[in-house]
UniProtKB/TrEMBL annotation:
<dbReference type="GO" id="GO:0006189">
    <property type="term" value="P:'de novo' IMP biosynthetic process"/>
</dbReference>
<keyword id="KW-0460">Magnesium</keyword>
<feature type="active site" description="Nucleophile">
    <location>
        <position position="2"/>
    </location>
</feature>
<feature type="binding site">
    <location>
        <position position="368"/>
    </location>
    <ligand>
        <name>Mg(2+)</name>
    </ligand>
</feature>
<dbReference type="InterPro" id="IPR000836">
    <property type="entry name" value="PRTase_dom"/>
</dbReference>
<dbReference type="GO" id="GO:0000287">
    <property type="term" value="F:magnesium ion binding"/>
</dbReference>
<comment type="pathway">
    <text>Purine metabolism; IMP biosynthesis via de novo pathway; N(1)-(5-phospho-D-ribosyl)glycinamide from 5-phospho-alpha-D-ribose 1-diphosphate: step 1/2.</text>
</comment>
<keyword id="KW-0808">Transferase</keyword>
<dbReference type="GO" id="GO:0004044">
    <property type="term" value="F:amidophosphoribosyltransferase activity"/>
</dbReference>
<dbReference type="InterPro" id="IPR035584">
    <property type="entry name" value="PurF_N"/>
</dbReference>
<feature type="binding site">
    <location>
        <position position="369"/>
    </location>
    <ligand>
        <name>Mg(2+)</name>
    </ligand>
</feature>
<feature type="binding site">
    <location>
        <position position="306"/>
    </location>
    <ligand>
        <name>Mg(2+)</name>
    </ligand>
</feature>
<dbReference type="InterPro" id="IPR029057">
    <property type="entry name" value="PRTase-like"/>
</dbReference>
<dbReference type="Pfam" id="PF00156">
    <property type="entry name" value="Pribosyltran"/>
</dbReference>
<keyword id="KW-0315">Glutamine amidotransferase</keyword>
<comment type="function">
    <text>Catalyzes the formation of phosphoribosylamine from phosphoribosylpyrophosphate (PRPP) and glutamine.</text>
</comment>
<dbReference type="InterPro" id="IPR029055">
    <property type="entry name" value="Ntn_hydrolases_N"/>
</dbReference>
Length: 485
């Protein structure tokens, strides 16, 4: 996952894009980039690291214009440390297009071949986003006839993008001198929400972003989600035109957004992330009650930050005291989205510390939102024991992650996943806990979609069922052999 934002405004957008990216930081910490359009001129600044350290005053001063976009990257293809692969990606024809992307393409081998052999396009990195912007540019070039750009031509190009590209993509592009284009893959796997605020007599200022909290913070009203397969084109003058461009759109949003990725104060596809996490806690409590004699547990504890709402609900429903026994160092970022296992492992220790007073002689029920590689949970069990815990029951508000995630979350190899090919008692032994309880898949799905219009969720990392056709066993093997560097 990455965080993306795009703005069409009536005043300079540089600071607004920066502020939005700071709010989306939890979606990617590898690198960041901002681009703006000042008439036909495009400006761009990108750098490694987090938003607050990446930009200098001179970068911000150079980002002129009233239309802009931004990106925070959590790499899933190519290299996490490459500055060339930081987004946005730029192509100079037609018009000058600059694009940001959240997601992961699954037919990159075919696209690379086609772009090189048929479309005669140069690719300079191994980023899938570079493929996406080149397919878009090629298809737009095939539509345009003069210097004017008709929205019909843009929508026809997006229809072709949907035909050629497989995988997940929520994307925003600036087309120099013309407008901003936002589009989402035909399954709407990754999120994208549209908002606006009044610009007085001149109409509206527009925003598209990965998460609704960006809209709220900027004083925008939510118009709606960009629909799966839909493209939204906003002209430089602030006119919004949209069209469904996919043959068979079907909303299947990523379940992992609700489990871990998104901020709890966002509303995604009409579902409050916070409330979904509370419901995950409710259902988990029912499962725990089925397996554990309640007299056995003294306290319920979250692993900060993401599991807090679920843990609170588990405690309340089971009628057991809720305690925060792990103190979190607020200056360490999210561990799971850091690149490299060594860094992740070291960061868990730097991030969390167990307070002995909360553990000594007690039977602890620990709640995490998910167990993926087991990096966090292994360390946590060890810390709890070292702090004097008597019995450690470990619980996860998500089911076992047994299969690779190929739609924008970096968990591409089976052998990395602690639950792959292991039964729950074996995972329990691996973690060193006394007892291990997971959410059931059906309960996770029901907890997330309850009360919403969403009927399906992308849950491949829990079920091994992939919505896009290209994810074959051969593809998964190839991904394992060609991991992110
Ligand atoms: O099994 P693992 O591979 O360790 O991954 C799962 C853990 O990683 C995430 O925490 P993270 O520290 O990234 O972020 P958080 O502060 O939002 O919980 C998640 O909340 C789990 O705690
Ligand atoms: N997590 C993402 O959305 C990553 C976007 C893109 N695949 C990249 O690696 O840069
Ligand atoms: Mg966590």
């Amino acid at each position: 996952m990455c965080g993306i934002v795009g703005l069409v405004s009536t005043s300079p957008v540089n600071q607004q894009v920066y502020d939005a990216l700071a709010l989306l930081q939890h979606r990617g910490q590898d690198s960041t980039g901002i681009a703006t359009a000042e008439g036909r001129v495009l400006h761009m600044a990108k750098a490694k690291g987090q938003v607050r350290e990446a930009y200098r005053t001179r970068d911000m001063r150079s980002l002129l214009g009233t239309m802009g976009l931004g990106h925070v990257r959590y790499a899933t293809r190519g290299s996490a440390s490459s500055e060339e692969e930081a987004q946005p990606f730029y192509v100079n024809a037609p018009y000058g297009i600059i694009l940001v992307h959240n997601g992961n393409l699954t037919n990159t081998r075919e696209l690379t071949r086609e772009l090189f052999e048929i479309d005669r396009r140069h690719l300079n990195t191994s980023s899938d986003t570079e493929l996406l912007v080149n397919v878009l540019a090629h298809e737009l070039q095939a539509q345009v006839t003069g210097s004017d750009l008709d929205p019909d031509q843009v929508f026809a190009a997006i229809s072709r993008v949907h035909e050629r590209v497989e995988g997940s993509y929520a994307a925003i592009a600036l087309i120099a001198g013309h407008g901003m284009l936002a589009f989402r893959d035909p399954f709407g796997i990754r999120p994208l929400v549209l908002g606006r605020r009044s610009a007085g007599l001149t109409g509206y200022e527009w925003v598209v972003a990965s998460e609704s909290l960006v809209l709220e913070a900027g004083g925008y009203e939510t118009v709606r989600e960009v629909a799966p397969g839909e493209a939204v084109f906003i002209t430089v003058g602030g006119e919004m035109i949209s069209r469904q461009c996919a043959a068979n759109p079907r909303l299947v949003p990523c379940s992992f957004e609700y489990v871990y990725l998104a901020r709890p104060d966002s509303i995604m596809n009409g579902i409050s992330v916070y409330e979904a996490r509370l419901r995950l806690g409710d259902r988990l409590a029912d499962t725990i009650a089925r397996y554990t004699p309640m007299g056995d547990i003294d306290v319920v504890m979250p692993i900060p930050d993401s599991s807090r709402p679920a843990a609170m609900q588990v405690a309340q429903k089971l009628g057991i005291p809720y305690r925060e026994g792990f103190y979190k160092n607020r200056y360490v970022g999210r561990t799971f989205i850091m690149p490299g296992q060594e860094t992740r492992k070291k960061s868990v220790k730097q991030k969390l510390n167990a307070m002995s007073s909360e553990f000594a002689g007690k039977n602890i029920l620990i709640v995490d939102d998910s167990i993926v590689r087991g990096t966090t949970s292994r360390e946590i069990v060890e810390m709890a024991r070292a702090a004097g815990a008597n019995k450690v029951t470990f619980t996860s508000a998500a089911p076992p992650v047994r299969y690779p995630h190929v739609y924008g979350i970096n968990m591409p190899t089976r052998r990395e996943l602690i639950a792959h090919g292991r039964k729950i008692p074996e995972i329990n032994t691996e973690l060193g806990s006394d007892h291990l309880i997971y959410q059931e898949v059906e309960d996770m799905q029901a907890a997330i979609i309850e009360g919403s219009d969403v009927t399906e969720l992308e849950m491949s990392c829990f079920t091994g069922e992939y919505v896009t056709g290209t994810v074959t066993p051969e593809y998964l093997r190839w991904v394992e052999e060609n991991q992110l560097s």
